Amino acid sequence: MAKINCSVGSCEYNAKNKNECTLKTIQVSPCRAARNGQPEDETFCHSYSENH
Known about the structure:
Blueprint lengths: L13 E2 L4 E2 L6 E3 L8 H4 E3 L7
Antiparallel strand pairs: 1-2, 3-4
């Protein structure tokens, strides 16, 4: 079984004690303006939801 690693503590789907996403799948989407070849600038997790 595959797992999605995540260290984004502000996302409600992050199982912080394991640094894993609790979703079975996520949607990764391109950022609109960035085209510099750096993954952290060009992509984001569209499935992110702020932990309230």
